[in-house]
Amino acid sequence: MKLLLEVKKYSIILLFIVLTACNQTVKKSNHNKDTSSRVEHLPYYGDASFTPHWLEPGSQEEKDFHKIPNYKLVDQLGDTITSETFEDQIYITDFFFTTCPGICLKMTGNMQKIQDAFLNDPEVAILSHSVTPSIDSVSVLNTYAKKNGIIDAKWHLVTGDKQEIYDLGRNHYFVENDLGIPKDINDFLHTENFLLVDKNKHIRGIYNGLNRASVAQLIVDVKALKKEY
Fold first, then answer.
1. What is the pTM of this model?
2. Tally of domains within the chain
3. pLDDT tens digits for 171-224?
4. Fewer Cβ close by (within 10 Å): the C or N end of the chain?
5. How far is the C-alpha of 154 from the C-alpha of 100, rounded, in Å?
6. How many CA atoms lie within 13 Å of 64's alpha carbon, on the beta-carbon side?
7. Sheet harboring 203-208: ordered strands across?
8. b/e burial code for range 178-198 (CB count within 10 A of at least 16 → b)
9. 33 plus 111 within the same structural domain
10. Is 30 part of any domain?
């Protein structure tokens, strides 16, 4: 009888140790998951202050939230590019010009890293708008694309109506940092920001296109965003 009681006591202690170890393993696993993805869902952004809104994907609130409107531009191949071009795609967007001697080349280099990271992923695309469309014709953009290793099917360099491009940049992508300063079409639009746009045309992230750590985080966030679909 005494031996039987000792065996039962030992079994209970062993079970307690196993359950405790399992619980600690689960907690550690969840912690690692949170560290890599930061949050369960990326926030949504709907104005120039870039205040994060924590919406539930698929909710009515999410459906009614700010979206990038329809547009009609032309890329380096002369193809018409609209919002439908990125149907069922996540895309990263920025604003540049081909004659920029400084930051644009660095931005292009960092965008190349994003292109490489998702080279064989049809769910991810890149859209770069020229802010000097009168200079950056289709042929100029095509030459720039070839010079910088831009893959036509993955990365669209677009030109078009200046008013439309500037309206998109300032009033829908909110790419400029100087809030509250009135501007018109004659004020030059230039920014180092990259934006992450989801499959429903919502802005889900803003990143410094000159900063390697920020670009690396963008790549992580694209992978996290893909898990929502």
1. 0.81
2. 2
3. 999 998 665 555 655 656 878 999 999 999 999 999 999 999 999 999 999 999
4. N
5. 22
6. 3
7. 155-158, 124-130, 90-96, 193-197, 203-208
8. eeeeeeeeeeebbbbbbbbbb
9. no
10. yes
